[in-house]
Amino acid sequence: MKQTENKLLSFLEKNLLWIAGAILLYLSFYARKNVLYFLSGDMKAYLISWYYQILDHHGFPSLAYRIGNYNIPYHFLMCVVAQFRGEAVYLIKYLSIFFDYVLALACALVVRAAVPVHRKDRNLLTFAAFFLTLALPTVFINSAIWGQCDAIFTSFLILSIWGFIKDKPALGMIFYGLSLCFKLQAILLFPAVLLYYFCSKKFSLLHFLWIPAMMAITSLPGVYYGRSIFDFWQIYKEQAEMYPYLTMDYPNIYYFVPNDYRLFSVPGIILTFSILLISYCLIIVYGQKKPYIFKDYLSFAIWTGYTCIVFLPAMHDRYGFPVEIMLVLYALIFKEMYFEAAASILIAILSYVPFLLDYTPIPMVYVAVANLILYATVTYKIWNGSLSQRLEKK
User: Fold this and answer.
1) Which of 156, 175, 182 is closest to 78 using CA atoms?
2) Which domain, by its residues, includes 332?
3) Which of 241, 271, 292 is the last residue of a domain?
């Protein structure tokens, strides 16, 4: 009996991560399945209606028409799930949930590529990246409860980071282009990609052509049914003009000014552009004495995305989703900013709840104050950890 127990214990020790992973995988899916019944306002007003319009046009032939205000790739995926002829809310959420797991895999790949082989905790961190991503309340709420698709474009954003880590810029650009094909919000990270090009000098300007190539390729299903290959441009133009509000529940600086979009929107855009332009000039000018490494890229991708959602008008409550994921990755890889990563998730939850549950546990103006303090903290730590060293060497 003792020998059998020893063998069993030995087996469990050798395969502990796999066993724990199988259990956590089941629990992650069970938790999501348990809340599929919930109908968010967006689901009632938009997504279910789009699904039945697709069914009315017999699935893929519906690509000939603009249904909803999302780009052709998402419309195509909706056509795929419509083939199963199930309950609309379930199928739409299953699509988003599938990409929760793609996102988790992307995060695991980034951690595994970024953590040196000699580090003893490499396997554990890879494991943690995958399952922590699935366990994040924002990821769970976004897909399983809300039925939104932010995990889709964020998956490709994270995969683009993985491509850059692996020194495969074409792959990085392809994934970034795919991200932009699904959601216009991916454009908020484009300045960070440009900065990586200027500072790393690892790839050609021609690699950027992969971005419009992906836009064209993913438009082909619509083109086949008669849509223009440039239809995405009109869709994104309409999206940009659709919400003339200073903030759509995102706790940023616009909670402290009158909600006058016409008065404050253009100054807000100019302010954001100026902050990024001046900052990037400093990085490029003083960055020549120190190699631009992966930590710099991830740091300034976080800071760029965070700066945009704090200072740009018309930001929605979900637009911080990629920044929150990148902060978690940063904490896992570099063992820094644990508090900031956790705080960003908490702030996001407090931003989601008023819309989803019609309940405001903390007045949003206080959440906005906390978010601005967090932004200032992240800004200080990122710039102090990168640019200060460059300035000293200069």
Assistant:
1) 182
2) 243-394
3) 241
* Residue 315 φ then ψ, to 5°: -85, 130
The DSSP call for residue 75 is: H
Whether 301 and 333 have beta carbons less than 8 Å apart is answered as no
- Please tell me the distance from the alpha carbon of residue 337 to that of residue 327, in angstroms, as a whole number: 8
Find, among 349, 266, 265, the residue nearest to 314 by Cα: 265
Q: Are residues 236 and 330 in the same domain?
A: no
3-class DSSP assignment, residue 317 = coil
In this structure, the answer to whether residues 338 and 263 fall within a common structural domain is yes
Residue 13 is assigned to a structural domain of this protein? no
Question: Which secondary structure element, helix H or strand E, spans residue 49, and what is its range?
Answer: helix 48-56
Contact 381/387 with Cβ under 8 angstroms?
A: no
Dump pLDDT digits (tens) for 260-314.
999 999 999 999 999 999 999 888 887 655 677 888 899 999 999 999 999 999 9
User: Can you spell out the DSSP letters for 95-143?
Assistant: HHHHHHHHHHHHHHHHHHHHS-TT-TTHHHHHHHHHHHHHH-HHHHIII
Six token digits for residue 178: 């795919």
Euclidean distance between CA atoms 81 and 79, whole angstroms: 6
Q: How far apart are CA 47 and CA 78, in angstroms?
A: 10
Q: State the Cα torsion 212-214-216-221 to the nearest 10°.
A: -160
Confirm whether 26 is domain-assigned: no
| Domain finish residue from 241, 257, 277 | 241
List the beta strands (DSSP E) in the chain: 247-248, 315-316
pTM of the model: 0.94
CA-to-CA dists, residue 233 to 108, 216, 267, angstroms = 33, 11, 24
Pairing relation of β-strands 247-248 and 315-316? parallel
Phi and psi at residue 352, in whole multiples of 5°?
-75, -40
pLDDT, tens digit (0-9, with 9 covering 90-100), for 332-375:
999 999 999 999 999 999 999 999 998 999 999 999 999 999 99
Chain center to CA of 54? 27
Give the chain's domain count: 2
Specify whether 233 is located in the same domain as 285: no
Are both 213 and 258 inside the same structural domain? no
